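Quick start: what a row looks like.
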Amino acid sequence: MKVTVQPSQLQGNIQAPASKSSMQRACAAALLNKGTVYIQNPGHSNDDQAALDIIQRLGAKIVIGSEEVKVESNGVLPVAGEINCGESGLSIRMFTPLVALSNKEITVNGSGSLVTRPMDFFDEILPQLNVSVKSNQGKLPLVVKGPLKPANIEVDGGLSSQFLTGLLLAYSAAGAKDVSIKVNNLKSRPYIDLTLDVMKQFGLAVPENKKYEEFYFPAKAGSSNESERQYTVEGDWSGGAFLLVAGAIAGPITIRGLDMTSTQADKGIVDALMAANAGIAIEAKGIRLHPVEMNGFEFDATDSPDLFPPLVALAAYCKGQTMIKGVSRLAHKESDRALTLQEEFGKMGVKIILDGNQMIIEGGSRIKGAHVHSRHDHRIAMACAVAALKADRETVIEEAQAVKKSYPDFYDDLKKLGASLGNKTSKYKFE
């Protein structure tokens, strides 16, 4: 599908999308919870739908409404021999250890770019936990058979914190006592904070966090049982970051529903906007953005790699150089995002230099409308659309439907704010 973005002026108020990081963790915790859970403000992205399908296959019963999802579960009791995580990296890394709680042989699969991502972490770790695992030379599909038995292990947290999230949930559900998970080089610590917070809200046994180097489940660790629980999914800082940058470029707009006390790593977009001297005001009713002259800035995105695309769109409109650290975190995304950003934004006249773990963006020049491609990466599609809002002419985005992975309402929300999408021969609706 193609989307054509015309140079536009934005104005108005918009609600941030639901966080898929929060939603997917809530689905996993609701599966482990023995009782009924009402998930308020549920997300409906492709990744969220994949998580809901997974927990049904693992034994949960769900009822989906417009305002909430009802989940009834008695733990991991698989009713199918396979789960499919779609293109969700979080789902594959979080649910695989939960699949391993069962003594049934289950195939774990995915689609799209997920089938090329490395999964040899499980080949190394799961056998230490009494779990049989077979992989396709370190890639999908995985065939897993438990039951998982918690033990003292040491893992590498350098590739993704999502592997640790799955292990923490699995250890808690398996009744881990007097055992530790030691972690080297943990990245994206705020996402582990989010995992621990969700575990606490669902009454799961929460380990002691020892400086993010060790997570210890004490001998007296235990869960709290309640027949009913309610959990409200946070607004999504990852998707909201694109709206915030859009406002800074083409506002004024106000984004509602983003919690300034959230543990989500991508809340760091506010620091980046302030460093760029953007027109931002944090008010009781939301975060208000309006265009002003902005300057290049420095930002460390090691713990928030998903911010690279909106940060590049922001930097394109900042005078001078912007330097972003954390490029090493971008290789195993839906695309090799560092190279993809360099190439697609290059078509729009933005020079990006990759220097080891640093990305340098030369900003301040007129952005050119161009023909770009999402590379089937939702965040690339959104970044190009945001950058196109003040380009010198229209921009056409190929495979623009990639946004359905995380933010299916993205183009509709831009249109509500006044963006001109499509022309006489091009429509933005999904085909």
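That is the whole record. The chain has two domains: 3-17+235-416, 20-232. Residues 3-17+235-416 form a domain with the UDP-n-acetylglucosamine1-carboxyvinyl-transferase; Chain fold (CATH 3.65.10.10).
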